Structure formats: structure tokens, C-alpha cells
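pinned: reference chain
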Amino acid sequence: TRREFESLCGLTRPTAVRRLKELCSGKYPLLSREGPRNSSIYFPTPGSFHTAHTRQISSDDIGEVDDPRFITR
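pinned: its C-alpha cells
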């Protein structure tokens, strides 16, 4: 939940909401939101965070810098 994310990361409420929105949107979302709008639960999408299912990526998308999981530092 957003409240758990807030306390775990030490974020303010608006920052936690903004970060969760970012994690749930975009070309390669890392989280999926389930449940009613005011009491959502967030789950990792298949292939993110080393979940059991791996994401199938077409050869056109390989090497895309948009996906944070492919950035090496």
C-alpha cells in the first residue's frame, strides 16, 4: 500500500503517490495497481524485480534505454 511505501522509504505522502504513479506507468511499468482507487495494493509486473515470469522483449526493443532494468552502472 501507499502508506507502507511511505514509511518504508521515509517519503511524504505526495512524494510516495508520485513515485508509485511513475512505477506503474510508462513503456515498462515495474508495478501494477490492483484494488479500489483509495486502497490499492501494488504488485510487481512479470519480469520485473526478478519475478518468476520473464518478460518477452522483441528484438526491436533490445537495448532501449527507456527500460531502467537494462541500465548498467
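why pinned: The mean pLDDT is 76. Residues 2-70 form one domain.
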